[in-house]
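Re: the pair you flagged

First of the two:
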Amino acid sequence: MRMKVVTVGMALLCAGGVGAQQVAPPAQPVTTTAAISGVVRDAVTGTPLAGVVVEMRAPSTGAPLARLVRHVTDARGRFVFRDLAAGEGYTVQGSKPGYANGAYGQSVMFGPSGRINLKDGDHFASAHLTLWTPGAISGRVIDEANEPVVGVYVRALSRVVIAGAPQLLAGPAVKTDDRGDYRIAGLAPGQYVIYVPSPSASVAADAPPGTLGAAAPPARINMFSMPGPSRTDAVLDAVDGHHVVVGNYVTPPPAADGRPRTYGLTFHPSVATVDASPSLPVGIGQERSGVDVALRPVRAVNVFGRAVGSPEALKGLLLRLVPVGMEGLSNGAEAASSFVQADGSFAFLNVAAGEYLIDAPSTTLEFTLATAGASESLPAPPGLRWASMSSNTLSAGPPGSNMVRQTGSRSDGWWTRTPISIGDASMRNVAVELLPAITLHGRIEYEGTTKTTVEQTPIMGAGGGPTQTSTTVTTPRPGTMPTIVAEPAYGLATLGLPRAERPPADEPQDRPVITGMRAGEYVIRLGGGADRYIVRSITVDGVDYTRKPIDATTLKPDSRFVLTLTDKLIRLRGSVSDERGPATDGVVLAFPVERTEWRGYGLTPTRLKASSLAGISTFDMNGLPAGDYFVVAMASTDLHAWQDPAFLEKASVVATRVTLEWGQERLLDLRLVRVR
């Protein structure tokens, strides 16, 4: 009987009766019959590189990797990954001491990489990698007695063009050794400036505990973390209730007559302004030696004043005195800083004569340049505490450039950018007005496309006719408000990166409010969160700003913008060839015909797009708005050049002109040309 009960129970389970347990089908074995192989070469000599660690990463489909995901190249620079499953999005990158990392499809140092798609049984044999030897700048820092200066910061800045305007990127910083020598390594090709920071700082004699000493770590980290260096704060005797803070940067001894002196910011070779410092071109693997910086003390003066604003604006306020030309840079670019007292009084102590701007960094935006070498973090001014930090790729900059946004613990609702000219005498009663930030309210409208598919199904039998079934599909709107950002139109980092905060889930998701705007020109951009939509139009108070900047000073308290999004996406794709056949090394660039749009397009241009061929002879661009464009296929080394309007002028001569319509797919066959 027991045997029968068991048999019946098993029968019920097999029949799927009430209470039956579902038996999962056995897992199907994954086919691993594909392979990836290639050769790693030196970018300059083309010589195969042995001993390169080549790493493969998983495809986006989640297919399992091979048993070995890292290989070392042999004497002929070769590597191979076997037993791979079919999948899309395999990436391969290589590293070797003395070189910047390289990846498959990467045509320039720090440039974009490519992906590999595999089918069962595929052998992708052209996953070749190029490694670049980075450049370096070295020299010595000496003082007024021609003696070496030990343990001081030396920093590289890179001169670039962003949004059609010249800008400075913050590069790596190092310290001099016991001989006063420095070497900044890991540099990408470019134009550089070298300087020694020497900012002064002041705090009130009754500053609250915690103002001095080690900088507090960020309370919240968003996408990017950069630990702050330890501070070594010491104070000198108080001057009118304010202490001078020393110990973090180089400070000269007082003069024989007791008057204070300062080195100020000193640029190579021994000049006080960034504009007077020569550009230093650095190529692949190039060493620029003998780039010395001679520090010369100058008479220092004091500047006393009062910040004017509401108690909320003054709370926790720190002012920076920044030399003209250095406004877009953060820590170490200031000549002086002052922690403001409750009554608004401040003091910039021991500063050199010059032209400056006074700012109040509650939120900062800084453009930075990637490096393949080591870098020191510069100490922040006493009293400055960052609550969060985030980093994103700078689309409008050269390969390897990023934008770093730091948010302070105080309100971003107030700002100042006060010009001041400092002479050889101390100044008093300087007024700094804190201005309320500009707020812009808006509305998002969606232009969704409704697609109806009609299917006919025949009915068998006499008298029966086909029936029709219609299916309607509408592009869904995002469940939460997309990211809406106001970007500085001409790349002025001092304008910050204001954005609309996402409302709670139970509130309307189509009413963005952009806060924290300052006097200047902005463009409104769609950051993320609406993948199947792009911007069709932007209006402010009924005026079309889709293709031109918005001057924030012209906005009224009741100004409103309308951001119209569409799902009628445009796809531009095609092939590239040269005199030998399909071209696999190059860049396809699309840019607007209208020359006024070659400038002022912000940090993430929508109508200028570059697509690297990444080892294949085809390109595929998505997300371009409708309009008239020039499209050109050019050398991969020109990937860093399109930011310059002068280059676009040359490219327009040899480019193909096309008109793109909303919802269109356009196919182009391009010839690789030389832009000169």
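Second of the two:
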Amino acid sequence: MNNNKMIKTMKSKSIIGAVLAAIFTIGFTTSCEDMFNIESSRVIYEHNHDLGSTADSTYTTTGILQCVREIADRYVILGEVRGDLVEINHLTKTSLRNIAEFNFEDDNEYLNIRDYYAVINNCNYALAKMDTTLAHNNERVMIDEYAAILGIRAWTYMQMAINYGEVPYFTEPITTVAAAEKEYPSLDIKEMAAELIPQLIPYIDYELPTFTGDNQVYPILQLVLADLYLWSGDYANAWATYWDYLTTNKNFNLSYGEENNLESFRGYMGLNGSAVESIQTLNGSTYSIVGAWDNYFSQGVSATLGYENLSYITMEESDARGKVSELASLFYSLDDTHQLNISTRMKEICGSQSYIKATLDKENKKTRNYTINVLAGGDQRRKYYTSQVSTDGETYDVYNKLAITSSSTSEISYYTPQVNIYRRSIVYLRAAEALNALAKEQGSDSLAVMSFNLLKDAYQVFFPQGHVLEEQLQQAFIGVHARGCGDVYLDTAVYVLKPNVIAQRLYNDPEQVVTFNDTINYIDELIIDELAMEAALEGNRFGDLIRFAERRNEPEFLAKRVATRKGQEQMDDELYNKLMDKANWYLPIK
């Protein structure tokens, strides 16, 4: 063992002892807090609980999902409050303010790692005790639950490593003080990926269980696996795994009526039915809404080609039912009581985009002609997950992406019904990221173009040889950028891979000679901006910035963006200098 690893291991011993020393015995429970309370009447002694029945496994898995709810809000708060898309205001409580300003010295309700380890240890217990050989009609009846719990554990460990830098890792259940006092290695995200990837690979083809009535409440193993490849720098396997999901998932059936049923394309995951426009009048023409953003965040809402939400953590509407999220009230209010604002930088990113609108022929079909910036405000998505609120004569924007009107009360109240983990567009964007990194690794222009087209015109990626049904497929397989910027596949001037456009973006000089590496960096910047516009407030932003900055070996990629939350002309020099030191990106373990 080298000296660095020895230091990590010694540190992890003290952490595990502090966090878990109170545990004497642990059973499966429906309350994850019980696992830290040896006097709880609901703790069942370890030797009494080999999970040898489907009822046992159901009860255990339900308890684990309850534990996951305890970290759902933190997934969003830690991922967004440290990023560049959120600003604090005069009402922001100290714990959130300190996170935003990267001040972690004081006790902070959001930094306690205890709840993450509640998930981990419950998963470890279930995986160790579950009888996966139990069969009925020659089918292994617990194997789906086993796979689901593997996914939960891997996703939770991944989040811990992203947020804390390196964390103690163990896979055996800790049920005694002696086990809590053992030495456990602390792993960073790449080391964690090396441990978790082999665990997931044998199980990615198993169906997730549906006994809860909703198999989308579990992290999707194939996407967790792809994310781990991406974080570990294995871009070939990351791209291959994302692409396999995009093209072979049976939940995404593509058809245009019985006469044109495209049986050969079953499994292809398109993005049609998911573009947004605003109702605006220009030169006497009125453009109507296509799609509605809040549909993406409502359980059971289906887009044309299937569900937009792929995996999420469900939250309750009232305390009487269980865990209620505080997210809606932190970001949204009608009376200026919210604590977190949409950042100026976020508005700048959206406002700098060009909206493309195709003209129509006499048969109301799109032509190759188009108009640039036919709708004001650039990217239209922000208008669907922000609101303008007026209080005391002042008008301001607030995020309402996580706020849904309550259905159980006559009063107007807002709550967060679910915290999304994976959506269709997130898969597209991470696939584009992996592919662009692979293009750089291999020096491949063609792979770089494919990455760009997942943003601009995904039809070109899915059907590179074209198709007789191009018109229909073009609209089904739009690029992610089209969700907020219209018919961008027609654009030959603005959203393009042209040297003068690349040079203007990177060097503010269209005459600057650009290299292949410049093209890669340009696509990277388009992807990170697209992740802002598409996935704002979904918990991934700071992790995305870390991943890009690490891959490029460029701390400034993260530091400059976070330090200009209040606008590109309002650089926070103190914060910038702090974030140029990567050690300050990560949370202390408390």
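The first helix runs from residue 3 to 20.

-B.
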